[in-house]
Amino acid sequence: MMLADANWLRDELELLTQCLAVANLLGMDLISYLDEFGNRALAQALGVTPSLISQWKTGRRNVSPESAIRIERATNSTVTRAELRPDIFGPPGESRDQGAA
Q1: Are 100 and 88 in contact (CB under 8 A)?
Q2: Alpha-carbon span 12 to 14, nearest angstrom
Q3: Higher pLDDT, 76 or 9
């Protein structure tokens, strides 16, 4: 990895960390989170394309249970798995893990 790439990645991670701190204060759902911070940072954190994030946002594709857990982790629980998939994880605020990881 070139030094410029490493510096860019460090800067992106720092920006994502700052975004997460703000988002935690606001308690956002996925659409609000993406409207505020964009698709790219979350896509990078999850290792998926911004196009997939856009499909989730518009409802063209459902978020899989596994992706819901990954989004919850990537957003530091700002967006919860229960908000994304209440059919699997129960209503928001109810802690229920179905073993998906």
Answers
A1: yes
A2: 5
A3: 76
